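CO-FOLDING WORKSHEET

Operator: S.A.
Ligand of interest: zinc ion
Run index: 369
Mode: holo prediction, single chain
Checklist:
[x] sequence pasted
[x] SMILES validated
[ ] output reviewed
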Amino acid sequence: MTLAVCWSEQFAIHDSGRAGLYLPVGGLIEDDVHVDSTARITRTRNLLRTSGIDDTATILEPRKARVEEILRVHSEEHVQRMQEVSNAGGGDAGGGYTPMDEHSYDLALLSAGSALTALEAVASGENTAHALLRRSGHHAWRESGYGFCVFNNCAIVARAAREDFRLERVAVVDIDAHHGNGTEAIFYDDPTVLTVSLHQDRSFPVETGGVDRVGEGDGEGTNVNVNIPAGGGDPAYLEAFDRIVVPVLLEYRPQLVIVACGVDASLFDPMARLGVTATGFAGMAARLLDVATEVADGRLVSVQEGGYSPVYSPLCWLAFIETIGGLEVHADPFEDFIAEQPTCRELAPWHAQANEATRKHLAPYWASL
Ligand SMILES: [Zn+2]
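OUTPUT RECEIVED:
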């Protein structure tokens, strides 16, 4: 069992600026560092180092993505505009709250390239790989950036897996607390890429992510949305995996599992209300690794997405990465506090009902449900 981690010190240089939570608010309220901060990434890198991952994993310096690799997913106009905004010293990538600085275009190319480096590592013999990066990708539409995301890293990896490595079927499983709207839209009519997103019910974007969005045309059935009501915690997530996500993946039989690895479903995250613990993320990782082992020769590529608690997100990523690397998972230092939280222990009836409703809705498309 081998693991690669892709990391460049350049990911520490992007400045998202200052904000009141995430919107620039001038006046009336004292601002703070933007939630999409450097610290959430550098602290994760440092935790991986101090936890001993560097002793067993291959640490890879990522390459930049080539523009033609980005153009498999995004329009030429979007790529050009991102370059222009960066060259002008900064601005917005799309949607009004996706800040860019003068480094953002190069950094977005490096992010996509880091995800591609992880794919190349897995294609050339590593079992699993995690791309520790910023800018995130899963909200980015074909035509624009959105929700802190510039280029859709997971979609770019999925296209490369299909076109460069000739895989017939790949799956993107998005565990970020928010809907993977960009990835869904890009592959909505494409049956060769299964897109699965678990996210907080009616969170962000509010208008997307419904269970009735199952794909269209040849892709009808190959888009799966699992809405978790707030407060679901580990029990709701792991039940959704066991009853919906894992059966669907085993039936689809992807030759590569790509994970949009956001950890903003965590108990301490300011951007969602889901209550998942580091142990819960390890549980999801173990299930995804089992699926990859059973149907994809163990090939799993994990790509960093959201996760905004500078203290707790690194612990969640560590647990996820240790698990996909087949390593012993460090104990969560918040274990005693977590043991007192009901959402972490028991599946509430309304969460079980929500999962059951999702399973029933998807059953016409999947014999295993
Ligand atoms: Zn998110």
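REVIEW:
Residues 51 and 330 are 8 Å apart (CA to CA).
The pocket of zinc ion is lined by residues 176-178, 262, 264, 306 (CB under 6 Å).
[x] output reviewed
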